[in-house]
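Lab notes, practical 5.
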Amino acid sequence: MIAAGIATALANPLTIPFILAMTYEIGIAITGQPTGGMGGHDILHMLKNLEFSHLWGPVLKPVLIGSVPAAAIAALVFYIASFYAARLFQSRRKTRLSARTVPSPVAADGKPS
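Output from the prediction step:
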């Protein structure tokens, strides 16, 4: 449930354009491909006409390539954060359970003090 909540908070209609732009720019930098002067209008035209062969080289390929390092960095960050969160949760749970199992002191007459 927590992972789904985090994913929903990070990947929503407000953040997806920024994520796509970031992965596109990373992909362009990795491939060394010139942007070709394509604007948003050109990309929208290709999407509306579903010209996959024309869309693959200038748009989809850089996004796919750029998503790999972005995903690797995000995975590393969230792995470290979730690892320490799980350790903290387990230590607090262990402390809470050990506090329950401590017997209460009993007086010599058998009644709790």
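Observations recorded by the TA: The first helix runs from residue 2 to 10. Helices lie at 2-10, 16-31, 40-49, 52-101.
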